[in-house]
Amino acid sequence: MHQFGWPVRVYHEDVDTMGVVYYGNYLKFYERARTEYLRKVGFEQDDLMRELNVMFVVKAVNMEYLLPARYNDLLWVTSDVSSFKRSSFHFDQKVYKENEQGDVLNQATVVVVCVDTKKVRPCPIPEAILEKLQTIR
Fold first, then answer.
1. In terms of residue numbers, what domain contains 87?
2. pLDDT tens-place string over residues 63-86
3. Of 56, 87, 122, 124, which has the maximum CB count within 10 A?
4. Among 111, 114, 131, 130, which residue's Cα sits nearest to residue 122?
């Protein structure tokens, strides 16, 4: 799998009084795409919490706003794991207008850390997840 994409429609709740997507809502769009990416490769986050006592939390975000998304736009949000370490991985993410041939409206690098749910501390990414990530890159 190269890049994973997920469609997002911009609703009234997503925009400010000018009809432009409120800047913080891009984080929600990216979260949805990362969650669906993990689901697509076979990992449900609630199952990971229950069965392996791990969850993925955002440690850092570097985001760049390029063009505005507006009310009722159809967006295409991509997620691609660009690198991973023992307990974290980096997602390169973009928001396109309509599809990957459309304008790039926003882009971000998101660092996600694997955390032990009992200790609430970083822990190694489970081997099954690492193996799957290595095979789809």
1. 4-136
2. 999 999 999 999 999 999 999 899
3. 56
4. 114
- Alpha-carbon gap, residue 9 to 81, rounded angstroms: 23
Measuring CA to CA, which residue among 52, 43, 50 is closest to residue 129?
43
Residue 28, domain CATH: 3.10.129.10
Give the 3-state secondary structure of residue 64: strand
Predicted TM-score (pTM) of the model is: 0.91
| Cβ-based burial of 79 (10 A; exposed 0-12, middle 13-18, buried ≥19) | buried
Question: Residues of 90-122 as b/e, b for ≥16 C-beta within 10 angstroms?
Answer: bbebbbbbeeeeeeebbbbebbbbbbeeeeeee
Number of structural domains found in the chain: 1
Task: Indicate which residues carry an active-site annotation.
Answer: 16
Q: How far apart are CA 57 and CA 106, in angstroms?
A: 21
